[in-house]
Design goal:
Blueprint: H1 48-57, E1 68-69, E2 110-119, E3 126-127, E4 130-134, E5 204-208, E6 214-220, E7 231-243, E8 246-259, H2 262-268, E9 301-304, E10 313-321
Amino acid sequence: MTGNSRNAANAGNVAGAENIPQGPRHKRDLTRRKVVVAGVGAAVAVGAGGVLAAGAFAGEKKPGKGAGVTASASSSEVCYKLTSETTEGPYYIDADKIRQDITEDKEGIPLTLALKVIDSETCRPIANAAVDVWHCDALGIYSGYESLSTGGGGGSAPTDAPTDAPTDTPSGSPTGTPTGSPPAGGGGGGGGHEEPTDGERYLRGTWKTDKQGRVTFRTIFPGWYRGRTVHIHTKVHVDGEWTDAGYEGGHTCHTGQFFFDEESVLASAAVAPYSISTTERTTLTEDTIYDQSGVQGGLLKLKYDKKNIAKGVVGSLTMGVEPDATHDGTG
């Protein structure tokens, strides 16, 4: 099922375009980063996660102006270690949709993503930051890059395969060495940025953190594709300004990925449409991006009915970031 695409203006990538001074926070020369607010009203998924998310999504409003770090931390706040930085991957589209519900009617297990952003040094929550999330659908396909994605569904083998294939085998050894660079891409692990190949934008969104540094997204449990474990990409932008048009300026202080434990992934694989995937799955321990450090490395804390994951999943994580640093994930 394809998502209902709403074409939105897409600004150039702000990350990495400017040199951000370190040390005390002060005004900076900021690269312009402007996006257009998408209309609100996407269908809200239902499930176990719906109960928690109901309050967060009720009366959804446009983000207000201002950005920065809150004056003080809660007395019960626990200071987290700096969350692992990862590669941006080739399929990032800069703040294309300002929204919390990114489902766009895509089929899959409902997932409520409850995040919190704090300063890893002071433990103070970071308010009014712009948080991006994006991930593939249940069959490993990325919106905006459907022709480049390496996921795959079920179905029979093609019927137009050649019947006159050669029966002899090549002999001899190859000579010389290959030239040129390896192909870009890699399905979200490494490789340079790819320009979008289509206008779909399902399972992508940006929203602001509240005074407690919290932000919630409504989406689906991601599928998998060749070479990567199940994951969600994220970016955190600070020092910008929320306007009626969207989010402007600022810099990227964190680029990371969220991961799912093997128990939850195996449970999801038994549910349609995940169950029709024919793509070989990379386990969490085999993944080349996840650093095996648990919560610090982006491993989500998950809550769901162990007897029926199809009802929905709630995934939560606190991200400890460096608000004065620039981590755009492109290095």
